Amino acid sequence: MKPAPALFAGGVVLALTLLAASSPLKAESIFDLWKHNIPAAGSPTPAEPLPQAPADPALANPGVADPALADTLPQAPAVPAPGYNSASGDFDFYVFSLSWSSGFCDNGGQQKAGAQCQIGAGLGFVVHGLWPQYTHGFPQNCGPDGRSPSRAALESVSGLYPDVGLARYEWRKHGTCSGKSPEGYFADVRRAAQSLTIPENFKHPTQAQQLDLRDITRAFIAQNQGLRADMMAIGCQRGALQEVRVCYSKDMRSFTSCPDVARGSCRTSSISVAPVR
Fold it and tell me: How far is it, in rounded angstroms, from Cα 131 to Cα 138?
């Protein structure tokens, strides 16, 4: 005998009601559960989003957070399962991230990194991090636990990171996924810093500048053979320059295309560049 339609429909509603009650999602109704795309456990983290400035009404488009504390930057559309990690050395390319120190300090960093932001520090671009990256997303916290960088490893990047605390943090979160020792990872950080030429007007500006986003991109491309716009991204916050990210091949021998990273560039038409402190 075929079940009556009313009884069948009632059974479906009852099942969905029980599912809604046990689900961590706060759907507006039990039928909203069908709208959620729940990632599988162990999914890679989405590409670290670049800081963006508020939307420019004229362009109808939607620009770092604290580089001294973490990589939890604005506009992340999704978050992986907590504690997700990956096999060390399993990634596709590197993202080398440089933070514009004055921009960071002017947007909340003063209270978080006093030494970096003090008048007379004279810091322009400082290393935020070197991040193993997938084509989509990135690994993090790959361990092994307790393997801390030696004093010699940290001294090898002295003057690149704004402080040793950030260097340690970046090793734990990103360096452990490189498949290398702390010494090998920080050698790659130094290699990236030495291979990327900073345009002249960013070396030690003493006056504020107002620049077009495209002009900043072109300046880096002009100074770095082989670099293209699809291999880098510019980050801004409240219309001010915060960060430049450049993608390197896994062997660190060349720049590489990284569409997901490049698409995260700030979309404002004009960016202010604060002078060094």
Answer: 8
Together in a domain, 22 and 117: no
109 and 33 belong to one structural domain = no
Identify the CA nearest to 229 among candidates 187, 265, 267. Answer: 265
CB 242 within 8 A of CB 51: yes
Contact 86, 139 (CB under 8 A): yes
Measured between alpha carbons, how far is 120 from 277 in angstroms, rounded to an integer?
5
3-state SS, residue 186: helix
Domain that holds residue 132: 43-273
The answer to whether 50 touches 265, Cβ cutoff 8 Å, is yes
Tracing tokens 């800081």 back to the chain, one arrives at 51
Q: pTM of whole model > 0.90?
A: no
**10-residue stretch averages of pLDDT, the chain, 277 residues long:** 46 40 35 31 52 37 32 33 60 97 83 78 93 96 79 95 94 95 96 97 92 95 98 93 97 97 90 92
Q: Residues 107-118, buried b or exposed e (16+ Cβ, 10 A)?
A: bebeeebeebbe
Question: Residue 237: helix, strand or coil by DSSP?
Answer: strand
Question: Are 28 and 82 in a shared domain?
Answer: no
The domain total for the chain is 2
Q: Are residues 249 and 268 in the same domain?
A: yes
- Mark whether 185 and 146 lie in a shared domain: yes
Upper half-sphere CA count for residue 249 (Cβ side, 13 Å): 8
Asked whether residue 11 falls in the same domain as residue 109, the answer is: no
> Tokens 């809604």 label which residue?
20
Same domain, 101 and 69: yes
